[in-house]
Automatic annotation (TrEMBL):
It holds the Pfam family DUF6270. InterPro entries: DUF6270. This is Uncharacterized protein.
């Protein structure tokens, strides 16, 4: 999942997807895995989190190389994992602040 072939295939797929979308707008949620939980407690498996965030960064870099870029939703503060998420604590289960911000950005981007 971290091989050159993986990233080459991702790029091929992204190119195909953007061609298929033609002139439609694409909104992309640009998130990374959280390194800590609400309250500042570090999450376990920091090495895995770092590795996954490096992979995501590389994927976002591939996407950004194309003339036709998606509209990125980026987060002004560090993403943190929810301590009591309904599916359990995980580096990609964020808290209510995340959901509120994401909803506000989507609403603003999709208004008439």
């Amino acid at each position: 999942m971290f091989s050159s072939a993986y990233f080459d295939l991702f790029e091929d797929g992204w190119r195909y997807f953007m061609t298929a979308m033609r002139h439609k707008s694409v909104i992309l949620n640009k998130v990374f895995w959280a390194t800590e939980a609400e309250g500042g407690e570090p999450l376990p498996n920091q090495e895995l989190i770092s590795r996954q965030n490096n992979k995501l960064s590389r994927l976002y870099d591939i996407i950004s190389r194309y003339d036709r870029k998606p509209i990125f939703i980026e987060y002004p503060t560090q993403l943190v994992a929810a301590k009591h998420h309904k599916w359990g604590q995980s580096p990609f289960h964020y808290g209510e602040d995340f959901n509120t911000y994401q909803g506000e950005r989507l609403s603003a981007l999709t208004r008439g």
